[in-house]
Write a structure and sequence with these properties.
By secondary structure, this protein is α+β, with helices and mostly antiparallel strands.
């Protein structure tokens, strides 16, 4: 059946060869069959996703009444333009002609069904299209399919265009520059930036500068354009007094001598963390106006390439910004005059743990300033994430939303008709993570659900707020994409995902399950994966694939038809399952998107990781399904998941027998200040010792495999090495692999996956 799958991205022989080594066979586990090896290869994330069609349309609005989307079919790609006012759609690009033109230009065969093009933009007159392919920007005339290369330096490609599309602001070393699309020339906006005191980019702590240097990846500018394209709000970042970290590249590939990389990196509790000094740059005059307020210490809101701290009003005469103290227990809303630099504080909120402006980590704050000065503000003060309305002086007028559910994202405010459009989860019953679209009046009246059907809804609103695109699905329900009016009425069916090629292999989607948490009352949600040759008369060991958050969840809630983080984890779970395991994911107490009490279970308690919920949950599943062998439980995670896997092996050795801990932040005292100070608390005290895995090394009894990349500038390899050192001093047997020239993104490398799976096959 595997031969029916026509679009495998990783050659069949590669992973088959990787999995065929005799070390995989063990007396306690049957040797791999050809079926198991082949099926594991089929479910490599890129392979699996490439065999699901009509799922990810990626709609792009080009006018208030028009958008285009791509529809991936078995043998081609459809590029469709929809006119919402006329209710029509048409093919706008001929995929065969475009693929032929690209093949001729590049000298490589480009398939019409898999064109790896990115950042596609269609002109307003629909006569040309611009996109990037393998780092080159092309313009294509849609009448002749003539391709024109647009030469741009890499740093300009990484820049942010102005709203009128005349300029691109970009980072050049330590300064901001401006590229004119009309003249093709560049000029500096700032000139006094230095290596550790620079403009328009985030600090080394959150930017991963070693990877930027090694991979020739320019930084994305950290700035916000005014709506009239005349001014830029950004920061001058000061990391001069921040301490230094280093990485040693032992196998640089050029020459024999190792290469050392140093960068600035702040730990929790350090006396100096990166400071962000807000400035306004006027393009016409060249004036740089510092805002008269304290330097913003680096916090979790900077852990995102997009500048979510600063935004403009529609007139360009006021900037708004958030100011967050270290530890993130206080959040302030500021307004500034971009001409004088004068700043006033409008309001603030303080809480016993960290204050969130949104539940979406690094996302746009759920804060809106209305034209009459009223403020829509997000808060969890009543135990759930909701919206509140304040006047322009920061006095509360009313709570906008309320109840045992949470607002996820404000999508738009229609002031003309008096509606706030937002997504929320937990209100409709069933899975509390499914997002739905709602609208409500600012006074809290007339709350309406706009997306029927129990599913996870991904929404794209039209710019004029006359209609929206609704892509709805669940982990076991293929995506359906439709166009709806703003009251939720169905206007047009766009596509329904087709996963029949995968199902012909014998695969069926992972089973959704609910178990009860350690408290005996809270529902915990998860997925269970079985191999395609599942035999319920057999006994299967179980592997818990984990990530403790606290800022997100690991369990996929929508259909896994893309290469998002959670979707790739989904297919990794299926791939592992094909080797003869039951694989589960679940999200215990302390993770995101539930009540504040649920989330705060991890505050100053990172070592907990929700592991008691995982243990009781797996025991409940074993009682429910007799084919689960509760005596053979493994655990696997990467990054914070690697930390969780190590914590499991060292805290509950009687339950978890085998663990793989990859790229783990095994001691958050050695991770970024923005992380530890938020989730483990500030100031830093001996309380942090509860999460140090190395202090629990004596507890190891099972088989633990530690993995790190030697060039990981996100989670430094020293954390893995310090845990390894503690295990050696405790006289414990463990396995260790250091992947050369790999940073934090090693987790979908075929050799890495083979190594991880081989360890489980050998030991579980």
């Amino acid at each position: 059946m595997a031969s029916e799958l026509k679009h495998l991205l990783i050659p069949l022989l590669l992973i088959t060869a990787l999995l065929a080594t005799p070390v995989f066979a063990k007396d306690t586990h049957n040797p791999l069959t050809e079926h198991e090896k082949t099926m594991a290869e089929i479910f490599y994330p890129g392979n699996a996703v490439s065999n699901i069609y009509h799922a990810n349309l990626n709609p792009q609005w080009i006018r208030p009444d028009a958008f285009w989307y791509t529809d991936n079919c078995r043998d081609t790609t459809m590029f469709i333009l929809v006119n919402t006012s006329q209710g029509t759609r048409k093919k706008i690009i001929d995929a065969d002609r475009l693929s032929n033109a690209l093949s001729s230009s590049t000298g490589k065969q480009i398939s019409p069904s898999h064109m790896p093009i990115q950042n596609m933009e269609i002109s307003d007159d629909e006569k040309t299209v611009q996109f990037s392919l393998h780092g080159t920007i092309y313009s294509c005339d849609l009448a002749s399919y003539t391709l024109t290369k647009i030469p741009l330096p890499d740093e300009v490609k990484a820049g942010i265009p102005s709203p009128d599309n005349s300029w691109i602001a970009y980072v050049n070393d330590s300064n901001l520059w401006l590229y004119s699309k009309n003249t093709g020339k560049s000029s500096p906006l700032t000139t006094d930036g230095t290596q550790d005191y620079f403009y328009g980019k985030r600090s080394d702590t959150v930017r991963y500068p070693v990877s930027e240097s090694r991979l020739n990846t320019p930084p994305v500018p950290y700035l916000s354009w005014s709506s009239d394209s005349s001014k830029i709000a950004t920061f001058k970042v000061d990391q001069r007094n921040v301490s230094t970290l280093s990485l040693l590249q032992d196998a640089p590939g050029t020459g024999m001598r190792p290469v050392s990389y140093s960068y600035k990196y702040a730990f929790p509790g350090d006396p100096h963390v990166p400071g962000y000094e807000p400035v306004i740059i006027d393009l016409s005059s060249g004036t740089i106006t510092p805002l008269k307020y304290r330097s913003q210490p680096e916090v979790s809101l900077m852990d995102n390439e997009k500048n979510v701290l600063q935004w403009w009003d529609e007139t360009g005469n006021t900037t708004y910004s958030l100011f967050v103290e270290r530890g993130e227990k206080t959040l302030r809303l500021l307004a500034a005059d971009p001409y004088t630099g004068m700043v006033r504080e409008i309001m603030n909120e303080t809480g016993p743990s960290y204050i969130e402006s949104t539940l979406e980590y690094g996302g746009d704050p759920n804060i809106r300033i209305l034209s009459d000065g009223d403020i829509i503000w997000f808060s969890e003060r009543d135990g759930w994430g909701h919206l509140y309305r304040y006047d322009s002086n920061g006095s509360l007028k009313n709570q906008v939303t309320k109840g045992p559910w949470v607002v996820r994202s404000i999508l738009a405010v229609d002031e003309k008709n008096g509606h706030i459009y937002f997504t929320a989860s937990g209100r409709e019953g069933g899975n509390p993570y499914y997002q739905y679209l709602y609208r409500v009046q600012p006074d809290g009246n007339d709350l309406r659900l706009l997306t029927p059907g129990q599913a996870d809804h991904a929404i794209s609103l039209s710019p004029d707020l006359t209609c929206f695109i609704d892509a709805y699905s669940s982990a076991d329900l293929p995506t359906t994409t439709v166009l709806r009016s703003m009251d939720g009425t169905l206007l047009m069916h766009l596509a329904r995902a087709d996963d029949s090629d995968l199902k012909r292999t014998g695969w069926s989607p992972a089973e959704r399950f609910t178990v009860t948490a350690r408290d005996g009352k809270t529902d915990i949600y998860g997925l269970m994966f079985r191999p395609t040759n599942f035999d319920r008369t057999k006994k299967y060991p179980v592997i818990d694939v984990v990530y403790p958050g606290p800022y997100n969840i690991i369990t996929e809630t929508s259909y896994p038809a893309s290469l998002t983080w959670s979707s790739k984890i989904y297919w990794t779970c299926q791939m592992i399952s094909e080797l003869g395991y039951i694989v589960v994911t679940m999200d215990g107490l302390g993770t995101a998107y539930r009540s504040r009490e649920f989330h705060d279970a991890s505050y100053q308690n990172l070592a907990d990781c929700g592991l008691p919920d995982h243990i009781t949950g797996i025991k409940q599943l074993a009682a429910r399904y007799p084919y689960i062998d509760i005596s053979r439980v493994g655990i696997y995670g990467k990054s914070a998941g690697g930390f969780m896997a190590a914590q499991a092996m060292l805290t509950y050795p009687e339950f978890f027998k085998t663990g793989v801990a990859a790229s783990g932040n095994h001691d958050c005292r050695l991770y970024g200040s923005f992380w530890g100070e938020k989730y483990e608390g500030y100031p830093v005290t001996d309380r942090y010792l509860e999460q140090v895995t190395a202090l629990k090394a004596l507890n190891l009894t099972g088989d633990l495999f530690l993995i790190t990349g030697d060039m990981d500038d996100n989670v430094h390899p020293s954390m893995t090495m310090q845990l390894a050192d503690a295990l050696e001093k405790a006289g414990k047997k463990y396995d260790l692999m250091v992947f050369t020239n790999k940073n934090h993104d090693l987790n979908y490398d075929p050799y890495y996956l083979k190594t991880m799976m081989r360890f489980f096959l050998t030991n579980l």
